[in-house]
Each structure stands twice: as C-alpha cells, then as structure tokens.
Q: What sequence folds into this?
C-alpha cells in the first residue's frame, strides 16, 4: 500500500527513470533528515527531489487562477 | 491544542536468505530504522534474478507490495532481501543481487550462484532489460542448462519500443520453452500477467551443444557427480570452466578422493585445447545467444542525423568537446562570477544587510542588557552579522546563479556528455570507469559518493576512492561557492584555480590508476538526447536545491560562527593562531588571523572559502592561495563521519591527516610558485 503519490524521477546523469521511494539519502549520513537528494539506482548520481517544491508551485498557480477568476467575476 | 506529531511508519519485512527473518520499519524519510528478529515461515520461494539495473528492485516492491528494497548501490545488491508475495500468501519473493553472469567472478555472482545450490525454489522470475536482451539471454541460458524453472520478464518494454526495438515474444517463448512476459515496472504494466505466469512452472527445453570433446567430458563427469539441486550437466560444465566452489559448498559430498579424478578429467580436456575451456564454452554460448537474438529482434533503421544529434556528438568528442566545455565555463564565470558574486553580492551585502538588516538588528539588540548576548548576535562574530550575512548575502546569490547554470546543464543533457568526454580523457591517462565514476558522483554529494565506494571489490580501492573524493572532488554546491569566491577575485584567478584543481584531480587520479586495477567497470551511461531546457524545470530545480542547501549549510554556518565566537571569547583562538603561525605565516604567507577561517573548513570548506574571501583583508595572491588550500580540505563534517562509518576510525583519521598535510604542503608550493613567477591577478 502506498501512502504517498509516487512519481517517476529521471536521473540527470544517465536518464534512468526510477521511483523516488527508497532512493533517499542514506541514514549513515548525519544530515540525512534534511537531505533532499535522491540516488539513482543505475549510476548512483544524486538528483534533487523537487516534488515538494513542484507541488507548492502548483498550489501557487492554482491560487492565482482562483484569484483571477474571482477578479473576473467581480469586474 | 497542538496534537502529537504522527509519524507515518510504513512497515516492511526483509529477510536473510538463509532463514533469519528481520523486520524493518521505514520512517517518513524513506530510511530503515529498526530491526526486530521475528519467526521464519516455511513458504514457497520465488527468486528474482537479473542483470544489474533492469528494474528488479521495482518489480520486487510491486510483487511484495511493500517498500522492502534496501536499494542496490550501483552495480550490486549487497544484501539479499525477501518479502511476502502480495499476490499469494503462501509464497515469498527473494531478491537476488544483480549479476551479469553466474561465473562466480564477483562476490555478488558467487552469492547468487551458490543460492540455487543451497535453496529450493518454486519458480524463478528472470527480469530482463528489453533494450539489452543479449545480456539477459546469458542468464536465461544458465537457468536453462541448470534445469531450473523460470519466467522471463522483459522489462522496460516502453524504452525498447521508443528505440524501435521489436521483440517477437512468441518466438522467444517457443525457443526457450518458458513463459515470456512484457512489463513496464515503473508504470506497473504487465505485473498481473507476470504473477499469473509465475504460477505455471515451466522448464526450458533449450540445450546447447558444445564441441565433441567437451560433450564427452561432460558425460564422464556427470557419472562422478551426486544428485544436486542443479542439473549435473551444468555442474560438469561449471567444473570444466574452472569453477570449483561446489567442492567447498558441499565438502561432505566431495571428499579429496572424489575431487582428484574430477580435476584430473578437467585437466585432460584442457590439454586438448590451446584456449581455456571457459573461453570455448562461453564462445559457444555467445553463438547461441546471437542466434536467438537475431531471430527474435528487429530494430528500425536509424533516422538521419539532425542538428541536435550532431551537436550532441560534438559535445562528447574528446577534442571538439573542449571548446564547448570552455564555453560552459565562460558562461558560468560571467553569470556566477559577475552577476552572482559581483553585482548581487554587492547589493545584498552592502545595501540590504549593510544598511538595513544589520543596522536594524544592532538597533534591536541595543536594548538587550547582556553585552555577551548582544555580541553573540550582532558582534564581529555574530550570528546575524556574520553567519546570516555570509550565508544569505554572499552564499545565496552565488549558489543561486550557479544552480541555475547547473540546472540548465542537467536539463539540456550536457552533463552525461561531459562525463563521457572526461571518461575518454581519463582513459587516455590509464584510468578506468571505476576511478572516474566516484568523481562524477561526487558532483552530486561527496558523502553519498563515499557510500557508493562500497561497490568496489577490495579494501584498498575503497580507501583510494574515499581519499580521492574527499581531496579533490567538490560537490556541486561547494563548487559553486568556491568558484564564485574565486571569480570575485579576477578572471585570471578563476582560470588558475580551475587549472590547479583539475591538475590535482588528474595527478591524484593518475596515481590512483596505479593502485586500482585496469578492468573497465560495468558502468553503462545511456546518453539522453540534447534538448532545450524547460524554464519551469530550471526554476523548480533551483528552488529545490536552494532549499536543500540552506537547510543543510546554514545551520552549519551558524554553528561555525558560534564556535568561532566561543574561541574568541575564551582566548583559545589567539593561542591556536600563535601555534599555527609558522604554518600560515611562513608556509602560506597568510596573516595568522586566517586561522579561524581554516578551522571552519573542518565544518564546511565553502564556509571557510567565504570567510577567507570576505572576512579578511587579503591580497589577490593570498586569497587565491587560501582558496586553493581550502579546496583540498575534507568537504564537510558529514563526509568525515561517513568516512568513519564506512572505512573505520583509524583509516578515516589517516585519510584526514594525509589530506590536511597535502592541502597545506600544496598550498605552500602554490604560493611559492605564484610569487616566484610574479603572477598578477
């Protein structure tokens, strides 16, 4: 059972597509809790996980759309 | 009222292959935390086998329905994991390490090879990359010869389709005599069909005929062999190729009096050939693979080369690629150096922080009665006036512009081309993929790249790669900050710094090639097409990277500043400065006040670079010497901890001792060279 929406991430180095789950920074690293890097299972290159920021951008976009519609109705 | 924070724990089970069952819990960071031993269950086993990086881990997690995969580090799966089959409560799925053959060359192949000798499985799922079918067929042939039941899963069918590869699965099914299923694991396509076919237990009817002498030897050897889980024919062939691990696996079945005649037969057969038997057997297998491959696959003719294809090829060329690399560095200098480290830093540091934020903070803290607290926040080594000013007014604009460029490089598909170009250049120097890979991975994160060194077979190689990473490979964030601080000195300083760091990588890499054996690694880099980067992607990636950097680096900047503050207040810094004076004043010809900045280099070398570039009144030559020296420091404190974790305390301390000695000695030499040649920056 998946608890969060899974999206495929494309490695910036080798182009391999993989699911972000389980590819987080290793807990051997003392900063893993705040680390937002994903490790490509193919080549090992660390790509930034931009899903949260992307979602925030989507929310901002939706908010602007909503405001635009409101303004249209008003004027 | 605030409720208790609920942590989303997802439970998953991972098992030791020989029976010990361990339960792991995965926290919301996606990492495993607990390990509880629970009772084993006697269930049917379905083994997952396949080449590395064919999507085996994804198939495994889809079949088990849980996030069991302790992800495989490139090229290997260190542990064998088991999970409950989500589609059948009476069976378990066992994930074997990724392998290219079962010739027991590496530790992983040995583990997978021995597994079938020691464990009975109900069925085997062979996961194959549909794009690289030849590699997969080598394993199929092994399973067929071993008399093991299997289902061939052609994964990544979408990618094969995009490349114009067509596979006649019906013909493949007929040739092998087992079920063939097409899947796209990342899209969860074909998984139900795979499960359905796994219930049908089919043995391959494929037989390979070897030269007559070998066939005779196989017949003779089978008479000596006791019944095993694998066919005696496959064991006899393995013995002829020199694989004698079966003797150590079953010493009671193979006492010396039984092994001697077997080895004698092998020797006699070998004497009849000028080439090794392993080579002759492999050659015959390759011929069969090639025959099957050409019968079942067709590939559309490649389309005519367009502009982006030609440009893409040029950027990878070892000679023609150099002007492109130079252009990238020039653009980076103009944007990061002039726009980021120049205009933006001036504005933020002098106007935003200098005239407003710092003055506002000073005014606010003016009301605080305790002078020590006041100084801690707004003094010379204050959290606001130093840590936040440096991290936000100096580092943020530099790193922001650098991440934009880095995002463009990633999104355009130039980064893998640069890796290929570097690979060729390094190969000329005698380096192999194993030595180059960590350097490229280090650009992402040195700490994780150090963990990746696990993939290397010997302890010596692991130590060398760890040393190389810590010494000469800055991660992208640090590269950006150090590049920006150098660019703020002058264009000549940037070129000298780039040349020096490249030279160190080359020299250290060259010597490492003398220690790391010259076998080329199995690292396969698929080159994506060159494309125009998408603006939204660049903005989002830059924002995500900035967030990551600020979350990781700023707390360390604050910690470093507090440490400096304590050292100043207790008078320890003065004592350290006096002690280190010969090193700094005589060797590097730097003022002893730079000691504090170098101490901060222990936490993060980019912080030290900023402190040196901005916090001291250094001449251009002094700044460059200091930055080159600090570039050679250990990247960050996390890297130091990971060294201890991966290589042990003794080795980690030795590596660090070497790095610091090398950094200062090289810094001294570099300073001498600059002054002797009277370089003007």
A:
């Amino acid at each position: 059972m998946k608890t969060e929406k899974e999206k495929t991430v494309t490695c910036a180095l080798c182009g391999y597509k993989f699911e972000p789950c389980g590819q987080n920074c290793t807990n051997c690293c003392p900063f893993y809790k705040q680390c937002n890097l994903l490790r490509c299972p193919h080549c090992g290159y660390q790509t930034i996980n931009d899903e949260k920021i992307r979602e925030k951008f989507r929310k901002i976009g939706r908010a602007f759309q909503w405001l635009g519609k409101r303004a249209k109705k008003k004027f | 009222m605030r409720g208790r924070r609920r942590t989303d724990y997802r439970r998953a089970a991972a098992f030791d292959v020989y029976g010990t069952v361990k339960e792991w819990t995965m926290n919301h960071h996606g990492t495993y935390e607990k390990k509880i031993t629970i009772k084993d269950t006697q269930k049917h086993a379905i083994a997952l086998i396949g080449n590395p990086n064919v999507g085996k881990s994804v198939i495994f997690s889809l079949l088990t329905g849980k996030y069991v995969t302790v992800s495989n580090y490139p090229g290997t799966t260190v542990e064998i994991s088991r999970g409950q089959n989500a589609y059948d409560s009476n069976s378990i799925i066992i994930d074997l390490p990724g392998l290219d053959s079962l010739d027991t060359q590496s530790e992983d192949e040995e583990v997978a090879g021995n597994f079938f000798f020691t464990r009975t499985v109900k069925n085997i799922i062979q996961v194959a990359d549909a794009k690289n079918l030849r590699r997969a067929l080598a394993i199929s042939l092994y399973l067929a010869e071993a008399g093991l039941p299997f289902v061939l899963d052609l994964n990544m069918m979408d990618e094969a389709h995009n490349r114009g590869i067509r596979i006649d699965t019906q013909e493949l099914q007929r040739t092998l005599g087992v079920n063939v299923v097409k899947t796209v694991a990342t899209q969860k396509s074909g998984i139900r069909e795979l499960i359905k076919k796994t219930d049908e237990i089919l043995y391959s009817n494929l037989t390979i005929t070897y030269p007559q002498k070998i066939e005779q030897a196989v017949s003779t050897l089978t008479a000596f062999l006791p019944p095993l889980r694998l066919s005696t024919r496959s064991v006899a062939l393995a013995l002829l190729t020199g694989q004698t691990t079966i003797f150590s696996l079953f010493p009671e079945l193979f006492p010396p009096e039984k092994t001697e005649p077997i080895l004698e037969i092998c020797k006699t057969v070998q004497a009849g050939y000028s080439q090794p038997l392993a080579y002759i057997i492999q050659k015959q297998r390759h011929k069969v693979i090639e025959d099957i491959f050409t019968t079942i696959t067709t590939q559309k003719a490649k389309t005519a080369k367009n502009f982006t294809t030609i440009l893409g090829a040029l950027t990878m060329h070892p000679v023609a690629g150099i002007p492109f690399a130079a252009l990238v560095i020039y653009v980076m200098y103009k944007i990061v150096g002039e726009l980021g480290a120049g205009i933006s830093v001036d504005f933020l540091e002098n106007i935003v922080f200098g005239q407003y934020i710092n003055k506002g903070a000073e005014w606010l803290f003016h009301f605080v009665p305790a002078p020590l607290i006041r100084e801690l926040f707004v003094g010379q080594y204050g959290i606001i006036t130093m840590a936040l000013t440096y991290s936000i007014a100096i580092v943020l604009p530099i790193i922001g512009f650098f991440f934009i460029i880095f995002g463009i490089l990633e999104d355009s598909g130039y980064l893998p081309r640069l890796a290929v170009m570097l690979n060729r250049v390094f190969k000329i120097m005698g380096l192999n993929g194993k030595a180059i890979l960590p350097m490229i991975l280090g650009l992402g994160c040195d700490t994780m790249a150090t963990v990746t060194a696990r993939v290397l077979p010997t302890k010596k190689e692991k130590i060398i790669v760890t040393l190389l990473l810590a010494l000469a490979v800055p991660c992208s964030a640090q590269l950006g900050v150090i590049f920006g601080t150098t660019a703020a000195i002058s264009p000549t300083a940037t070129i000298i710094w780039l040349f020096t760091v490249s030279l160190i990588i080359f020299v250290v890499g060259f010597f490492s090639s003398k220690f790391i054996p010259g076998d080329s690694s199995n690292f396969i880099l698929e080159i994506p097409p060159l494309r125009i980067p998408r603006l939204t992607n660049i903005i989002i990636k830059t924002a995500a990277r900035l967030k990551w950097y600020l979350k990781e680096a700023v707390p360390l900047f604050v910690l470093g500043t507090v440490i400096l503050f304590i050292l100043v207040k207790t008078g320890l810094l003065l004592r350290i400065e006096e002690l280190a004076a010969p090193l700094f004043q005589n060797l590097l010809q730097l003022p002893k006040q730079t000691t504090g900045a170098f101490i901060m280099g222990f936490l993060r070398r980019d912080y030290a670079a900023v402190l040196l570039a901005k916090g001291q009144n250094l001449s251009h030559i002094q700044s460059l010497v200091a930055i080159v020296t600090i570039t050679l420091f250990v990247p960050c404190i996390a890297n130091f901890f990971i060294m201890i974790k991966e290589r042990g305390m003794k080795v980690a301390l030795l590596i660090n001792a070497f790095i610091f000695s090398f950094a200062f000695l090289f810094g001294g030499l570099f300073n001498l060279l600059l002054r002797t040649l009277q370089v003007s920056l």
Observations:
- Chain B touches chain A through 62 residues (CB under 8 Å).
- The radius of gyration of chain B is 30 Å.
- The mean pLDDT of chain B is 79.
- Residues 321-365 of chain B form the longest helix (45 residues).
